[in-house]
């Protein structure tokens, strides 16, 4: 099963994990990591590496981060570049993509999940249909 790590500023990641657990039940091989003001990027990197050691069972790990170019993403990319592990990194995490990753990670490989949730991310952003939008 593919592991999942969600990294965010503050408690956003744990909120997403809480929502996923509410919908799907308790999950294994998934962790939420908060990046707080008191932490350095090196502290965050160590936390992520520790989580990788706990949840990577050889099938790879999908790392979600909140913002492209921000510290959680930059740390995830450093780990991606330095590690020999199978890792994919996606910035701009939202509930639909984490939920879909959780639902298909036992049957699909890391590469397939990565491509699929990128499409889900784009398709999950919706607005009021123009037919009923107030002018």
UniProtKB/TrEMBL annotation:
InterPro entries: Bacterial_PTS_sugar_comp (IPR051471), PTS_EIIA_man-typ (IPR004701), PTS_EIIA_man-typ_sf (IPR036662), PTS_IIA_man (IPR033887). GO terms for cellular component: cytoplasm; membrane. One of its GO terms (biological process) is phosphoenolpyruvate-dependent sugar phosphotransferase system. Pfam families: EIIA-man. GO terms for molecular function: kinase activity. Residues 1-125 form the PTS EIIA type-4 domain. It is found in: Cytoplasm. Keywords: Cytoplasm, Kinase, Phosphotransferase system, Sugar transport, Transferase, Transport. The keyword Chaperone does not apply. PROSITE patterns: PTS_EIIA_TYPE_4. PANTHER family: PTS PERMEASE-RELATED-RELATED, PTS SYSTEM MANNOSE-SPECIFIC EIIAB COMPONENT-RELATED. This is PTS system mannose-specific IIA component.
């Amino acid at each position: 099963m593919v592991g999942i790590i969600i990294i965010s500023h503050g408690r956003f990641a744990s909120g997403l994990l809480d929502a996923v657990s509410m919908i799907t039940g308790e999950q294994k091989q998934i962790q939420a990591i908060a990046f707080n003001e008191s932490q350095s990027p090196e502290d965050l990197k160590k936390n992520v590496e520790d989580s990788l050691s706990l949840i990577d069972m050889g099938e790879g790990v999908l790392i979600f981060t909140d913002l492209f170019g921000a510290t959680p993403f930059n740390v995830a990319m450093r780990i991606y570049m330095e590690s020999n592990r199978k890792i994919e990194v996606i910035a701009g995490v939202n509930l639909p993509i984490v939920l879909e990753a959780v639902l298909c990670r036992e049957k699909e490989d890391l590469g397939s999940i990565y491509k699929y949730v990128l499409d889900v991310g784009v398709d999950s952003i919706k607005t009021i249909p123009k037919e009923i939008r107030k002018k």
